[in-house]
């Protein structure tokens, strides 16, 4: 009910929201609200298993919604060598592919 009221006030249509802590309870609710408002959440978390559980649950609830999930460890291993600025660049490239 609350999500519907927020969706009536704000349109996030085709906007991308990066949600850190996406595997947690707040991340889940933030992502659900972004989806309800027409946005595209990109979830990021160090808890890879929890991240995928959250992603799968949201995809069940919002059938046709665009949604991405990236584990911090996956990013760190593949791209960053732990450099935060490069994380922003890498995520920007990722978001252009969503």
Describe it:
With 98 residues, this protein is of the alpha/beta class. Helix content is 57%, strand content 15%. The protein has five helices and three strands; from the N terminus they run αβαβαβαα. It has helices at 2-9, 25-36, 48-61, 72-80, 84-96, and strands at residues 16-20, 40-45, 68-71. It has a three-stranded parallel sheet with strand order 1-2-3. α1 crosses α2 and α4 crosses α5 (84-96). The longest helix is centred in the middle third of the chain and has 14 residues, at 48-61. It is globular, with a radius of gyration of 13 Å. The N and C termini lie far apart (28 Å). The model has no long low-confidence stretch (mean pLDDT 77).
Provide a concise account of the structure shown.
The protein is of the alpha/beta class and 98 residues long. The chain has five helices and three strands, in the order αβαβαβαα.
Name a few traits of the molecule.
15% strand; 98 residues; 3-stranded parallel sheet; globular; alpha/beta
Largest sheet: 3 strands, parallel
Name the shape in a single word.
globular
Instruction: Give the radius of gyration.
Output: 13 Å
**Low-confidence runs (pLDDT<50, min 5 residues)?**
none
How much strand content do the residues show?
15-25%
- Estimated helix fraction: 55-70%
Secondary-structure element series: HEHEHEHH
Mean pLDDT comes to: 77
Alpha carbon gap, first and last residue: 28 Å
Our count of helices gives: 5
* SS class: alpha/beta
As laid out across the biggest beta sheet, the strand order is 1-2-3
How many β-strands, per DSSP? Answer: 3
